[in-house]
Amino acid sequence: MAQRQMSIGMNILGHGGHAAAWRVGEAPPTAAIDVEYYKDIARISERGTLDAIFLADGPALGGDVERIPAGRLEPTVLLTAVAQATQHIGVIATASTTYNDPFNLARRFASLDQISGGRAAWNAVTNAGDAAAQNFGLAGAPLHVDRYGRADEFVDVVFKLWDSWEDDALIGDRSGGRYADGSKVHEINHVGAHFSVRGPLNVPRSPQGRPVLVQAGSSEGGKALGSRWADAIFTTQTTLPDGQDFYREMKDRARAWGRNPDGLKIMPGLSTVIGSTEAEANRRCDELDAYQGEEGLAAQVAMRIGIPVSELDLDAELPWDRLGDPSIYEKGSVGFLEAQLNLARRERLTIRQLGRRIRSGHRLVVGTPEQIADTLEEWFLAGAADGFNIMPDMFPSGCEIFVDHVVPELRRRGVFRTEYTGSTLRHHLGLPHPLSQYAAEAAREPALSY
Length: 450
Prior knowledge:
Layout: E1 7-11, H1 35-47, E2 52-55, H2 75-84, E3 90-96, H3 102-115, E4 120-125, H4 130-134, H5 144-162, E5 170-173, E6 178-180, E7 190-191, E8 196-197, E9 212-215, H6 220-229, E10 232-235, H7 240-256, E11 265-274, H8 278-305, H9 334-347, H10 351-357, E12 363-367, H11 369-381, E13 387-392, H12 397-412, H13 425-429, H14 437-442
Parallel strand pairs: 1-2, 1-13, 2-3, 3-4, 4-9, 9-10, 10-11, 11-12, 11-13
Antiparallel strand pairs: 5-6, 7-8
């Protein structure tokens, strides 16, 4: 029996996972709006046979634009160009269910999937911040329960649209004058609480059937959405026990929906700072931290817990008495917040210590390529992950070091591929080709569940 192998994605967070990466000078300050920058990182990642590159996104200008690069290109447009510059690697774009409509979004991702030859994925998110809401005529973000109620129906409609062309619907018979089999192109006629959509989609089915669905929410609503619909879940756990608990819970939830739990890939995020020795890795980390200073690192903690840094004692633990208000979970990512709180609670960290342990909101490992491989292998074999979403400290060097030094170590241990054996993202992830739900109905068989 072949040894199980992990999946690995490369998360391109601006200039890197460290907020000060842009100041180091590896890439120009304007790199985040330069398509060639993304193509370069994608090619490096493809050299390492990684599963995919991943772009986070949100429909508002985030961060302190005076001090940190904050502009970003629309990810599906950007990844169309990246897909043309690569041959194998998957391309994952984030798009909101709160501020889009199902038909346009389904068409956009189906187009990216066709253009990439079946390598596209949609990271479906809801948006909690008021800034995004105010860009769409609202005073503030919808309540959590309303966002996820809309999201569940939104994904349902998108899946129906993606399935509205069966795999063999397109005939292309010039001599007979038949372009498609009309009996295999279906109106979806969806009428629900949030949407009324006739269909069918005006993009035929792609080589991988439909785009991969990724989900990243760890709230109750996010877990329900992900376990029902997602092919992969990007998650935020910072300790192995928490990772194992989340992994078991999500597999059990998938099983409760009647799904094969192997069809749901759990992929925690990992921030990395890598050196040829521990001392070199720590020196690299300290140099980046110096640009932010202790106040800047603590400010990242303060932002997530919703308390101004001026009101915090940096050498004390988190003010647990002020963190019981449920409203803090409405203001941002529940997953990031809980991961941060759980780490601080388990290890009794001060705010200053926590600031040095959290960068992009995910678990941070500073060390040699062997140590990075150790922690990936440990979580993978211990039932805490099917794969990982890697966030290097800075690009492009953090990506190059991972590909050239960590990947060979993982291959030596037999837990990561040595070459691509298929052409679609579903194949890379070890996911089956999904049968159109309309084809399944016609055959009076249940559709393949995800």
